[in-house]
Amino acid sequence: MTAEAVVFEHVTKRYGTAEARREAAAGREPAAVEDLSFEVPAGKICVLVGPSGCGKTTSLKMVNRLIEPTSGRILIGGTDIAGRDPIELRRSIGYVIQQVGLFPHQTIAENVATVPRLLGWDATRREARATELLDLVGLEPSRYAGRYPSQLSGGERQRVGVARALAADPPVMLMDEPFGAVDPIVRERLQNELLNLQEQLAKTILFVTHDIDEAIKMGDLVAVMQAGGHLAQFAPPDEILASPASDFVARFVGADRGLKRLALTRVDHLELMPAVTASPGDDAAGARERALADPFPYLLLVDAAKRPIGWVDQDDIPASGTIGEDLASAMSPLLSRHTTLKDALAMLIEAEVQAGIVVDGRGAAVGLVTAEMIFDWSRDSRPAAEPEPAS
């Protein structure tokens, strides 16, 4: 099914009288969500992030009408959901929660096929869909289809939860802290698997988390919410990190937001520094002349396929004869165009070298990245300060 845009138009959810009193007594604003307006384009991931009690989950549950808004409209594919039957609406939306909520006495295949069964699919079609989805989320159907939830690890149960949410091919998926109950290593793997799935499926996903790092990694768009259900900022992750809309957003994303931006950006965003190269057996005088004319004080020795062998200090290049492989000293880290700038910088610091060597899929050197280039990118890519208003 084609993904559909989700639009919040001035959505407010007020507490009841007793809830409002409790919130006021606790010093919090008496609204779960206040005048929430934003649009998630079809096929994009929007992450709702903010401190506890800011209305993230309430906003999510209003999309499938588990909670009804006090005012405003939510549209899916241009249609106001208030006019749709709630049961039909929920069956058309994928929903993944932290606790997964698998039925313990049903097999994994039966759990995955829950919504197709409710929609009246026949057994053959349900079985085929469950098999397809278990394979898609990396759970071999022949091993997992007949098992029960208690026989799976937490990470495996989360994968089943994602498969179940996808079963009826929904245009929209809601994910409420889906990876919050697993350990950090499994969490990172599940995040990466979801991003890989999204490349294939291009669903519209609303994803709730309290973790700003997860929001930055997962979101095409991020909605930062604050107490009282107010939308503090809605923008792509890089914009939020580079230009927080308020002191609250700046504090929430953290003082290390410059490093977080580096984690969003890959080496292929940089204009690579050309490397002066030579191969064993090349004329030393010519190589020396080229190396001395370059501001970078090293010659990169490469093999016949342009794969790096090691560095030669320009002062160690002979004035005559040929270049010998024995001149090469320790290598720099090898980077790909997909390496994040954060990882590249960490590798340079760990190796205590000036430059990393960027290689292509065959391992051939295509250029250099230096720490200085990364720092320059970070500085130059910041948005210009807004001018002071005229007095």
Based on Cα principal axes, name the global outline: elongated
Classified in CATH, the superfamily of the largest domain is: P-loop containing nucleotide triphosphate hydrolases
- Head-to-tail CA distance between termini: 55 Å
- Round the Cα radius of gyration to an integer and report it: 27 Å
- Total count of helical runs of at least 4 residues: 16
Under CATH at level 1, the class of the largest domain stands as Alpha Beta
Strand coverage percent: 15-25%
Number of strands: 16
The CATH topology of the largest domain is Rossmann fold
The CATH architecture name of the largest domain reads: 3-Layer(aba) Sandwich
Average pLDDT, to the nearest integer? 89
Could you characterize the architecture of this molecule?
With 391 residues, this protein is an alpha/beta fold. It has two domains: 6-254, P-loop containing nucleotide triphosphate hydrolases (Rossmann fold, 3-Layer(aba) Sandwich); 269-377, CBS-domain (Roll). It is built from 16 helices and 16 strands. The chain has helices spanning 17-25, 56-63, 86-91, 108-112, 114-118, 123-136, 141-144, 154-166, 184-201, 212-218, 237-242, 247-253, 257-264, 284-292, 341-351, 371-380, and strands at 6-14, 31-40, 45-49, 71-76, 79-80, 93-97, 172-176, 204-209, 221-226, 230-235, 277-278, 298-302, 308-313, 334-335, 355-359, 365-370. The strands form four sheets. Strands 6-7-8-3-9-10 form a six-stranded mixed beta sheet, with helices on both faces. Strands 2-1-4-5 form a four-stranded antiparallel beta sheet, covered by helices on one side. A three-stranded mixed beta sheet has the order 11-12-13. Helix 6 (123-136) packs across helix 8 (154-166). The longest helix has 18 residues, at 184-201. The radius of gyration is 27 Å and the shape is elongated. The model is unreliable at 385-391 (pLDDT under 50).
